[in-house]
């Protein structure tokens, strides 16, 4: 059963169509990545899934009682406002100490609890946002460009963390990325959006799809290879086919 699905979803702002007949779904335990150029409607789709944007046509169906953990695209915290990580994690709802400790461990932010939010690095900040989203035991994590502003190793580390969380919780993950980089191969499914769904499938299928190439060109292949290489401890030569297929 799908955790969430959008059926024939259309949204227009002031007569400008932003989403046009979009169908997407997320099942339990899968990581689905939404890619698309700037302004293609990715955040609008996330907001529609969250229920904060009302569609003009179509509808969003959630599994009854679905618990969603949301990690926003950005969150500005006034640096003059004293706010420790521990306090931030207790907003808007205070959770039990054991629960907090578990999530803090899961997201690798132990030791940061008494630090000011405004003093955190970009990668630490994103992990804290993820930790807060995890405190509600989400069945679905919705993340809108969670690695914005991180360098490529930071981004790769964040996606590995997401994979671990998915494994540990069995939750579905729906995340937005506009730059692709390392994200694609961490996904079970990639959906390429440009107001409508241009193409979707496994990372490799989408990477090779003409609709995707038309939008993004060929520039991301290197990044995809880099990520795969990163996970592949047996081979250090990734310039060539390993030839395994020809064996026998
Ligand atoms: N509340 C709003 N009122 C009017 N126009 C809006 C509103 N929200 C978004 N838009 C417009 O809708 C279009 C899609 O915006 P959206 O934020 O969904 O795109 P995106 O794919 O997430 O973009 P980016 O990659 O730049 O974050 C843009 O042209 C944007 O200016």
Automatic annotation (TrEMBL):
One Gene Ontology molecular-function label: ATP hydrolysis activity
Alphabetized SMART domains for the sequence: AAA (SM00382)
Stretches assigned to the ABC transporter domain: 4-219
Swiss-Prot/TrEMBL GO biological process terms: response to zinc ion; zinc ion transport
Record flagged with keyword Nucleotide-binding: yes
UniProt entry keywords in alphabetical sequence: ATP-binding, Cell membrane, Ion transport, Membrane, Nucleotide-binding, Translocase, Transport, Zinc, Zinc transport
PANTHER family in the cross-refs: METAL TRANSPORT SYSTEM ATP-BINDING PROTEIN TM_0124-RELATED, ZINC IMPORT ATP-BINDING PROTEIN ZNUC
Record's protein name: Metal ABC transporter ATP-binding protein
């Amino acid at each position: 059963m799908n955790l969430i699905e959008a059926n024939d979803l259309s949204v227009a702002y002031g007569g400008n169509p932003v989403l046009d007949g979009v169908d997407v779904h997320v099942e339990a335990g899968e990581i689905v990545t939404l890619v698309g150029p700037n302004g293609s409607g990715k955040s609008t789709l996330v907001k529609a899934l969250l229920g904060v944007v009302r569609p003009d046509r179509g509808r969003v169906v959630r599994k009854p009682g679905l618990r969603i953990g949301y990690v926003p695209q950005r969150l500005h915290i006034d640096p003059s406002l004293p706010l420790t990580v521990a306090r931030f994690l207790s907003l808007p709802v205070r959770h039990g100490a054991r629960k907090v400790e578990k999530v803090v461990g899961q997201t690798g932010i132990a030791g940061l609890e008494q630090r000011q939010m405004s003093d955190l690095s970009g990668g630490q900040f994103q992990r804290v946002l993820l930790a807060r989203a995890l405190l509600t035991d989400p069945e679905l994590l919705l993340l809108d460009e969670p690695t914005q502003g991180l360098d490529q190793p930071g981004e790769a580390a964040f996606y590995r963390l997401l994979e671990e969380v998915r494994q540990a919780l069995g939750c579905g993950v729906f995340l937005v990325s506009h730059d692709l980089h390392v994200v694609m191969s961490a996904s079970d499914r990639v959906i390429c959006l440009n107001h409508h769904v241009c193409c979707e499938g496994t990372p490799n299928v989408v990477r090779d799809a003409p609709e995707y190439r038309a939008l993004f060109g060929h520039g991301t292949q290197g990044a995809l290879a880099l990520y795969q290489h990163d996970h592949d401890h047996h081979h250090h030569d990734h310039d060539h086919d390993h030839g395994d297929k020809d064996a026998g």
